[in-house]
Specification:
Blueprint (H helix, E strand, L loop, with lengths): L4 E5 L3 E6 L6 E4 L2 E4 L2 E7 L13 E3 L2 E2 L2 E2 L2 H12 L13 E5 L5 H14 L4 E6 H12 L5 E7 L4 E7 L2 E10 L3 H15 L7 H11 L6 H8 L10 E4 L10 E3 L11 E4 L2 H4 L17 H10 L3 H9 L1 E4 L8 H12 L8 E2 L7 H9 L5 H4 L1 E2 H7 L2 H7 L4
Parallel strand pairs: 1-9, 9-10, 11-17, 17-18
Antiparallel strand pairs: 1-2, 2-3, 4-5, 4-6, 7-8, 10-19, 11-12, 12-13, 14-15, 14-16
């Protein structure tokens, strides 16, 4: 069976590669301008060539997980399909395109039009990333009749219940908190307390990834953060990059020799108060329930006979799930909400960012794969309606 071209079109990064590869390439889904090189645009991972990544200006094709600027998105796709990144021969290679839940029909039609008419794709499968996470989990756990997928992404976080391989639409929910909200909140806190970093999204995203963790006892950690070192073992210094001798910053503990001649941030309660938004969105005025309550709510919307299986088969995907302590905190909060009769089992894959892409790789090897796709001939013969009919039930 020939390989498929698997493209997970995330709002933060696109995961793309042929299905015969072990791992996908991760390409930022944006175009960036730098103060140091005003005449050049950096598309995707070309940012690695930028000499000074301070004060980057982002041009984002997606907003709240949906494509809003087609010219920018097409430019990113053109780069990805070029010989410099991950070229494809769509005359022979089917394309698996992953999208978020609740995507607009107009966006779906636009994507299909570009892939069929611009890229001359011969066979195309459009499918939610969560469906492929569930497919991947089902292949690894064939005895599990149900699965609850948590996708903690860049624009928002989703929870979706799957029963016997089919997603329950009424138990598919989202909250508007993801990696982007966390990074923006961190920028605001640091700008208010220490240093104006409102234009340093690229660097502050790295600070978030390197420094932050999820608290297991919020009250105790806040109390500890008010103390002085060494009683306060939460406080850290983050050495900021200068983009001459240091391209990426790093965490520096206070028991190490002090770093001189480098700009630094002092990270204290910011380390755990920023990821706390995943569990309490109302802290920044987002009037929605947190992730643990959302898990409980989605399970309670399902038939009673499925609930024990859903609690025992929770799979987490998405880059925002990689904070230390995330799984333990989620387990603790869900355990407190769920009935004592249920066992809770939460699985965090070794790489939650590419877990859905691996599901796309697996589905391309399914003996029934070609019954899922829409061919170019079908698309031209029946129009966009064939996409809605065919892709509505794939999972």
């Amino acid at each position: 069976m020939p390989s498929a071209y698997v493209l997970d079109n995330g709002a933060y990064s696109i995961k793309v590669e042929h299905s015969n590869a072990a791992q996908p390439k991760l390409v930022p889904n944006c175009i960036m301008k730098a103060k140091s090189e005003k005449k050049r645009l950096f598309i995707g991972d070309q940012i690695d060539d930028c000499r000074d990544a301070s004060g980057l200006f982002y041009l984002l094709p997606m907003n709240k997980g949906l494509i809003v600027n087609w010219d920018l998105q097409k430019s990113v796709w053109d780069y990805i399909l070029s010989k410099d990144c991950c070229p494809a021969n769509f005359a022979e290679t089917p394309c698996i395109y992953m999208e978020p839940y609740f995507n607009y029909a107009s966006v779906q039609e636009g994507v299909a039009e570009i892939f069929f008419e611009e890229y001359e794709c011969q066979s195309f499968l459009r499918i939610p990333t969560g469906d492929l996470a569930e497919y991947h989990y089902r292949k690894q756990n064939p005895a599990a009749p149900c699965c609850l997928v948590i996708d903690a992404g860049y624009s928002f976080s989703h929870v979706a219940a799957y029963i016997n391989g089919k997603r329950d639409p009424k138990a598919t929910k989202r909250i508007d908190v993801g990696g982007k909200v966390l990074t923006n909140h961190l920028k605001e806190i640091i700008s208010y307390r220490q240093l104006n970093v409102m234009e340093e999204t690229y660097v502050m995203n790295q600070v978030k990834e390197d420094c932050c963790f999820v608290s297991l006892d919020l009250k105790a950690d806040f109390a500890k953060s008010k103390l002085k070192y060494p009683e306060n073992d939460i406080v850290r210094e983050y050495i900021l990059p200068d983009f001459t001798t240091l391209r990426r910053g790093y965490v520096h503990t206070l028991d190490q020799p002090p770093v001189v001649d480098q700009q630094k941030l002092r990270m204290n309660n910011e380390r755990f108060s920023v990821p706390e938004l995943l569990f309490h969105p109302s802290d920044v005025g987002i009037q929605q329930i947190g992730l643990a309550e959302l898990v409980h709510h989605c399970v309670e919307l399902c038939p009673e006979e499925a609930r024990s299986h859903l609690y025992e088969n929770i799979i987490i995907t998405g880059g925002t799930s990689q904070f230390p302590g995330f799984v333990d905190r989620l387990y603790k909060d869900v355990r407190a909400l769920a009935s004592d009769e249920y066992n809770i089992n939460i699985t965090l894959p070794p790489d939650p960012t590419t877990y859905s892409w691996q599901g796309g790789k697996l589905i391309s090897q399914d003996p029934e794969f070609y019954s899922f796709v829409v061919t170019k001939e079908e698309y031209y013969e029946e129009g966009p309606i064939i996409l809605l009919e065919r892709f509505d039930g794939v999972s």
